[in-house]
Amino acid sequence: MYLCIAISFIDNSGKDLIIDGWFHERGVLWPGQAMSLKVKKVLDHYRTDFQDLLVFESENHGTVLVLDGVIQVTTRDEFSYQEMIAHIPLFAHPNPKRVLVIGGGDGGVLREVARHTGVEEIIECEIDEGVIIASKKYLPSLAIGYDDPRVSVKIMDGAKYMEENQSSFDVIITDSSDPIGPASVLFETPFYNAMYKSLREGGIVCTQGECMWLHLNLIRPLIDSISQTFSSVEYAYTTMPTYPSGQIGFIIATKGRNSCKVPEREMTDVVQKELQYYTPELHKAAFVLPAFAQRAIFGDKAK
């Protein structure tokens, strides 16, 4: 049986994270609500070069990775996010060969991209090496993605890497934390312009797109802005129990191709049996938005 060593655990910003054995996630992007998980054991806590990092073993959600007080991964439900952010763009592309992952230091997206045997090269650009180190130590079921020989890791700013690699990738996946701190630039138009330039013709980008219940004020302006550049811009989503409001979205945009709502390639039975969330049917359903979100994000535009 594990015991919580301290009654109160405080991150480097001075905010209480663990009180009386419970982790509490409270963020400025979801005011008035919180997420709490019971802690069995704190595994690690330190300041990386960029952010506060906490790893703990929870009572019911397995190992939990927290950055700046915000849950990034729990081993109980991570597959719903990792599978959808990777497989929606990859199966929407008829023949992806080179894939760039920006962020995603836990390795989960790499794990999913590696299931596509036709992909020849996978580049990960992660600015915070501390996340990779912690994930390899505490999240081996995700970090297994680093073991694939097609994977190369660049510890650097993703925008700079894309500037140096124009028209290079068939799919770019940005697995970022929320638009606060080091990840804030990943939600701005210049970053999307950089992705556009780094895509090959016919390429697809898929980025963490925040929550329709909380962040329509962030989603709509960004989609409006990048729609002037990309051939198509769409919003899909997945359910995610330990993310705010239990839902997280993806902004999916293309260069020289149309909608990504229907898979272009069939999945093998072997891969489907390995997956826990994504199916071709869910791929299509992920783009079907509730009426309030459809109106708020796209206005009078046709579905």
Automatic annotation (TrEMBL):
PROSITE patterns linked: PABS_1, PABS_2
Lineage top rank: taxon: Eukaryota
GO molecular function: spermidine synthase activity
InterPro entries: PABS, PABS_CS, SAM-dependent_MTases_sf, Spermi_synthase, Spermidine_synt_N, Spermidine_synt_N_sf
Keyword set, alphabetical order: Polyamine biosynthesis, Transferase
Domain PABS stretches: 20-255
GO biological process terms, semicolon-separated: spermidine biosynthetic process
Active-site annotation: D175
HAMAP family attached to this UniProt entry: Spermidine_synth
Stated family: Belongs to the spermidine/spermine synthase family.
Protein's name in the database: Spermidine synthase
Source species taxonomy: Eukaryota, Sar, Stramenopiles, Ochrophyta, Bacillariophyta
